[in-house]
């Protein structure tokens, strides 16, 4: 299935992030035609930038590439439930479908906490599909944090 | 009062944004010693970047300048109530005090909608002071949108 291979790209980005000492989360933006427009992993530590989450970097790259602040019709694959900031940017960028892996009870903003897409202040609500390859994504995170203790 | 002059800097950034054809919102980050670390206005259109809100740009610049992904003890002044994405980044950056001008019922994420700071997924909650020079900030926005109709 197409979405599996896109999530595998996102998992590759998460693994690359872990190898850089970053929390292993990866994201991929796919155009309506199925082209991978951008792929990114977390770089908050490397860039000293609290906004350098995988989702935000991938969305910013895809926007720069398409010359638009909106990614209408595009899909986002991310290995972990987006935080509230990323969820709000996903809405602002008009992402059509959000596919994510593991749930994030501690910091997530889609299915818990502020539930960004459930308020009228979210001017666009993507279709949301959770639990995609979630064991792989969760294992990456567990291994990363276990190795740092 | 110090916070008035910092908000006036933020209003100057909002005016400069309007002159560039951007929604007029401005933000300033101030260090614990009172130094202006960064000032920015919206640049979403110029940069084709849905994350290029005044608050995010100012926080990213201040983080780059201080070499840290956290701005512990710093204050943020912004002319409009932050959106959910910016509010979540303000929390992630450990901003100590948030001063804002006009309320934003349509897109705000602090005092309405997702109320980002009211959930346990916000790992840091700043002190929040609203209504600072709010008439000036609101007038800028009204004039901007009236001129575009």
UniProtKB/TrEMBL annotation, chains A, B:
Provide the residue positions that the database annotates as binding Zn(2+): 53, 83, 86
Q: Some GO term, biological process aspect, for this entry: which one? A: tRNA wobble adenosine to inosine editing
Write down the superkingdom of origin: Bacteria
Q: What EC number(s) would the UniProt record show? A: 3.5.4.33
What molecular functions are annotated in GO for this chain? tRNA-specific adenosine-34 deaminase activity; zinc ion binding
Matches recorded under PROSITE patterns = CYT_DCMP_DEAMINASES_1, CYT_DCMP_DEAMINASES_2
Catalytic residues as annotated in Swiss-Prot or TrEMBL: 55 (proton donor)
What does the record's cofactor remark say about binding? Binds 1 zinc ion per subunit.
Identify which cofactors the protein needs according to its UniProt entry.
Answer: Zn(2+)
Q: Does the keyword Manganese apply?
A: no
The chemistry this enzyme catalyses reads:
adenosine(34) in tRNA + H2O + H(+) = inosine(34) in tRNA + NH4(+)
Residue intervals of the CMP/dCMP-type deaminase domain: 1-111
PANTHER family hit by this protein: CYTOSINE DEAMINASE FAMILY MEMBER, TRNA-SPECIFIC ADENOSINE DEAMINASE
Provide the assembly information: Homodimer.
The similarity comment for this entry is: Belongs to the cytidine and deoxycytidylate deaminase family. ADAT2 subfamily.
* Biological role: Catalyzes the deamination of adenosine to inosine at the wobble position 34 of tRNA(Arg2).
HAMAP family the record matches: tRNA_aden_deaminase (MF_00972)
Name of protein: tRNA-specific adenosine deaminase
Q: Which organism is it from?
A: Tranquillimonas alkanivorans
Please name the gene that encodes this protein. Answer: tadA
